[in-house]
Amino acid sequence: MNGPLLKVENLTKHYPLGSGIFKKNIPVIRAVEDVSFSVEAGETLCIVGESGCGKSTVARLLMRLVEPTGGRVLIDGTDIAGLKKDALRAWRRRMQMVFQDPYSSLNPRLTAGQIITEPVENFERLSRQQRNALAADLLQKVGMSPEMMHRLPSELSGGQRQRLGIARALALKPSLIIADEAVSALDVSVQAQILNLLLDLQQQMGIAFVFISHDLGVVEHIGHRVAVMYLGRIVELAPCEALFAKPVHPYTEALMAAAPVPDPTRVRLEAPVEGEVPSPINPPSGCAFHPRCPLAVERCRIEVPPLVPLADGRVVACHVRAPATDVVAKPTTAANSSLSRVV
Ligand SMILES: Nc1ncnc2c1ncn2[C@@H]1O[C@H](COP(=O)(O)OP(=O)(O)O)[C@@H](O)[C@H]1O
Ligand code: SF4
Ligand SMILES: [Mg+2]
């Protein structure tokens, strides 16, 4: 199959605030606004940004847990909105999700073995022997002992529960796993173990990840490419190495300045971003970052900056750092076309 595994085109999600007859006048929360990206087989695309910028809404749109206000999600070139019964079931096998809080996403009354074999049993009947063999295999894949299959979630540590969540996601041999803040609730040392586990699984099984996190340190460890979101929009999408070597968008720069610097040889960037994230109900005009941006000029208050492809394979939406006058390609397709996998 040619083309990307996952392609997202101009995805938009507005949540109406309240209801009424005159729908046109109801204010909306602009959770996701015109988001486009693609993910190749076996690739990790990270989505990073402050709380409330729309990351989880993108995840829910990808999993079809919520319907988009606009835009499309394509798997292997097929629009998931048009899928009917059987095709939808087949597609659901290919995309799995791992959540932030493993405890609330695991049924407390089921044993670890039942939890991880349940997705398969939704598709086919398993004998007791097959079920035990599958549970043992999946537990071993995520670095747990097969004896753990008899335990309840409450009898496991936070790290073990997250491993269990990953084992459950692996059960159907997916092509893509969407991990939403999957390590955020864990201690730093356990975080590192889970990230290494995901990297190993990717190498062994060729799984692609959409890895969502507010933590740039985590993203740097695991990502091939990184999309930075601000108030529902992607403002910079870049190969991981290029982004961490030199952020171009002033918001990315500010995020990095705010994050701890694990590498002492790396120069700390300018001052962290000041002020609060504005409300997505009535976002600032033009570039939504302009009230907080030290580089803002008059144009920033008026025009939304398009995503402009730069020579090093990134796209950036900034009138000052990536002026659209230099563009050759169409901005909305740039996020899909100009980015190749970087390992
Ligand atoms: N079901 C919903 N109804 C109304 N607003 C929502 C809903 N889900 C998310 N939002 C709003 O959409 C915005 C983006 O939320 P979310 O995608 O959860 O951000 P993130 O995951 O980056 O923290 C926030 O302002 C949030 O309050
Ligand atoms: S477009 Fe203007 S306000 Fe937005 S990030 Fe660039 S300089 Fe700052
Ligand atoms: Mg979230």
TrEMBL record:
One of its GO terms (cellular component) is plasma membrane. SUPFAM superfamilies: P-loop containing nucleoside triphosphate hydrolases. The keyword ATP-binding applies. Residues 6-256 form the ABC transporter domain. One of its GO terms (biological process) is transmembrane transport. InterPro entries: AAA+_ATPase, ABC_transp_ATP-bind, ABC_transporter-like_ATP-bd, ABC_transporter-like_CS, Oligopep_ABC_C, P-loop_NTPase. Signal peptide: none annotated. GO terms for molecular function: ATP binding; ATP hydrolysis activity. It is found in: Cell inner membrane. PROSITE patterns: ABC_TRANSPORTER_1 (PS00211), ABC_TRANSPORTER_2 (PS50893). Keywords: ATP-binding, Nucleotide-binding, Transport. It is a peripheral membrane protein. Gene3D superfamilies: P-loop containing nucleotide triphosphate hydrolases (3.40.50.300). SMART domains: AAA. Belongs to the ABC transporter superfamily. PANTHER family: D,D-DIPEPTIDE TRANSPORT ATP-BINDING PROTEIN DDPF-RELATED (PTHR43776:SF7), TRANSPORT ATP-BINDING PROTEIN (PTHR43776). This is Oligopeptide/dipeptide ABC transporter ATPase.
